[in-house]
Design a protein that fits this description.
Cofactor: Mg(2+)
Order of helices and strands: EHHHHHEHEEEHEHEHEH
GO molecular function: metal ion binding; phosphatase activity
Number of strands: 8
InterPro entries: HAD-like_sf, HAD_hydro_PyrdxlP_Pase-like, HAD_sf, Pase_PHOSPHO-typ
Distance between the termini: 56 Å
Shape: globular
Radius of gyration: 23 Å
Strand order of the largest sheet: 3-2-1-6-7-8
CATH topology of one domain: Rossmann fold
Number of helices: 10
Keywords: Hydrolase, Magnesium, Metal-binding
Largest sheet: 6 strands, parallel
Helix content: 40-55%
Protein name: Psi14B protein
Amino acid sequence: MAGIVVIFDFDKTIIDVDSDNWVVDELGANDLFNQLLPTMPWNSLMDRLMKELHTQGKTIEDIEEVLKRVPIHPRIVPAIKSAFALGCDLRVVSDANVFFIETILKHLGIRNCFSEINTNPGYVDEEGRLKILPYVDFQTSPHGCNLCPPNMCKGLIVERIQASMVKEGKKRIIYLGDGIGDFCPSLKLREGDFVMPRKDFPAWNLIKENRTLVKAEVHEWTDGEELEHILLQLINAITIEESQLLSVECKFHTMSKASHGPFPRPLPVPY
């Protein structure tokens, strides 16, 4: 249904793990990660680790191979393909980075399903090492949201998407996420929208504790199978509701025209 925007978090929502931790663990940088974690922001830490891995001789191809092995529930890809086939506008809002996300989505054959990926920039420099930058330069332009990490406020991204939806004629949002950073965007959703937090994860706990602040309808899920079932059920319900509304509007318009009858022909103007 063209009027529905489905927004996915990435780590522990589309994939079953945190992509940053997965790469760090698989490439043997865990000790350095634990050593540096208390000393710098997360994005700076990941950039520093990518530099260290490059120094150790790890290549971009090594990182890509690790990303292609990332665990994912077998029903996630069919769920995304089905939502896309039904005409939904799919987007990613994630605190991972664009290199990790695009590598995984391309490997899974679903990159083309997403119209937009909102995440931290990442690129391969001229020396062949991966550089990771924050979505927001929090040193010079802080986003000002005390619910979100300094590098990204997902709530502000959802507000921008909402503004663009008005121009594009889209009406409803379904938001899926799991982490603390997914609580702020849940508060930005409106009546008629839906939020799908992963059960027993931080976003679900925060929504449960602050239920009166969330205007959207809440539908929790536990794994990819349940995600697929609930997501497609919601899309189907919205589609039926919108079709019924359109049918009523068309019927009203037809009845209105019939009650007024045909427009009278104008009288000839005398010369």
